[in-house]
């Protein structure tokens, strides 16, 4: 009886599609409530059939039904869930490449949205993840170069800045702290912040440039742990991670970044690249890399361009991470991740 209902509903869906009951574009949409149409009810029955076939481990038949749903309902918010089920069933059958292809196609489908879209990303460990996490996993592997890293955008930079410049931020400057509950001076977002503290900032930047950043960081971290300061996130990064970051970035680059933030915190506290990567060499020296994750349809903001240009000018190596190829811009694979476009 169940299989009979599935077969009838499946045939009715195909018949409805040939009569253009199921629309394919927004302009063709004839009714604002497709759930009241016969084809929508038939699709629900077919989906129940998919559940039944999956429970019986009859994945090939479930795959056929899901493919027909996706073929006949081209403008439907359920496409994300159907795509996910299809990808999973193909994986159950050992058709891994086809499963990945379905997921990649789904990422380019405008009707695959929100949670369904995120569910189509899987990392090296088979766990659900975002594309930035997927990139981190690639870079951590042998093929990617064995980098450690974080997806933090501005977060880790503002934490490092706050810790290194703590005494400057909370310096005794008139009229910038009006209550004991402030986490930063009132002028932090203004040009006055640097000008009023230039005598304090420049000697500190010189120490950072000369390689004393790690020592300053440790002292500040231990002295002010869990004290509120704008930009400093005590829960996100451990002291070990922060020490590694300042060591691998290097004094020259770190001093320049701190100078930019001190001179114009409002402008430079956003737009930083998605990923910060670092790795150590055998002599404890290190190196760092910034990676901006972008898809073919994404655009760099002007502030992102400013940060990338700034880092390129002082380091000469900025990868822009692409998520796909010209023929299929939704591809997110090792090959896509390794395709880096450099500004310069």
TrEMBL record:
Predominant subcellular localization, coarse grouping? nucleus
Q: What EC numbers are recorded for this enzyme?
A: 3.1.4.1
Q: Which CDD domains did the record assign?
A: FAN1-like (cd22326)
What this protein needs as a cofactor is: Mg(2+); Mn(2+)
Q: Which residues form the signal peptide?
A: none
Q: Which GO terms describe its biological process?
A: interstrand cross-link repair
A Gene Ontology molecular function term of the record = metal ion binding
InterPro entries documented for this protein: Fan1-like, FAN1-like_euk, FAN1-like_TPR, VRR_NUC
Coiled-coil spans are none
Give the keywords, sorted: DNA damage, DNA repair, Hydrolase, Magnesium, Manganese, Metal-binding, Nuclease, Nucleus
From which domain of life does this come?
Eukaryota
For this record, an example GO cellular component is: nucleus
Recorded hits in Pfam families, A to Z, give: FAN1_TPR, VRR_NUC
What does the UniProt entry say about where the protein is found? Nucleus
Reaction(s) the record says it catalyses = Hydrolytically removes 5'-nucleotides successively from the 3'-hydroxy termini of 3'-hydroxy-terminated oligonucleotides
Domain annotation VRR-NUC: ranges: 208-328
- Member of which family? Belongs to the FAN1 family.
Physiological role: Nuclease required for the repair of DNA interstrand cross-links (ICL). Acts as a 5'-3' exonuclease that anchors at a cut end of DNA and cleaves DNA successively at every third nucleotide, allowing to excise an ICL from one strand through flanking incisions.
Q: What is this protein called?
A: Fanconi-associated nuclease
Which species does the entry assign this protein to?
Artemisia annua (Sweet wormwood)
What does the record give as the organism's lineage?
Eukaryota, Viridiplantae, Streptophyta, Embryophyta, Tracheophyta
